[in-house]
Every structure is written in structure tokens, then in C-alpha cells.
Amino acid sequence: MAKGIASFTVTADGNGDYLIGIEDEDGDTTEFTATFDQLDMMSEAIGDALDADEEDALGIDDDTDAEEEV
After folding, report:
1. How far is CA 4 from the centre of its chain?
2. What is the DSSP letter of 55?
3. CB 22 within 8 A of CB 29
4. Alpha carbons 67 and 70: distance in angstroms, whole number
């Protein structure tokens, strides 16, 4: 079973990479190193996932929108 994320941090390491810290709901922290390009790809993937679910999250109904535009 997947654990929930309690918090996360992203900090520059001073050498051109970034340190990502993810704390789970049990208080355990795992750290990852990522390049700028990797971090950029992660942010794009998160944005794409949120955009795909945006209508559901906002409660937008496609049928209602179509009726309003007419």
C-alpha cells in the first residue's frame, strides 16, 4: 500500500542539482537528487495530471458548459 506524503522540500544543492526531500505520513524522510531537467519533467508531469483532473476537481460539467455557450 502506498504511503501518503506529509511534506516535501526542494532545495538547490549549490552544484547545479536539487535535493528533493519527501516526508511520509509515518515521519520517515527520503531524499533524492535531481537535475534541473529532471525537476522540470516532474513539474510538467504534475501539471499534466492536475490539468487532466481539473474539471473533476472543480465540479465542471461538460454538458452544462455546452448549454451555456449556446
Report:
1. 13
2. H
3. yes
4. 6
C-alpha cell at 32: 533524492
> Which runs of consecutive H residues, i.e. helices, occur in the chain?
36-58, 62-69
d(CA 63, CA 55): 12
Kind plus residue range of the DSSP H or E element containing 24: strand 17-24
- Residues 42, 21: Cα–Cα separation, whole Å: 14
Contact partners, residue 13, CB within 8 Å, separation at least 6: 19, 33
pLDDT tens digits, 21-67: 999 999 999 999 999 999 999 999 999 999 988 777 777 666 655 55
Residue 64, CA distances (Å) to 50, 55, 59, 61 in order: 21, 12, 11, 5
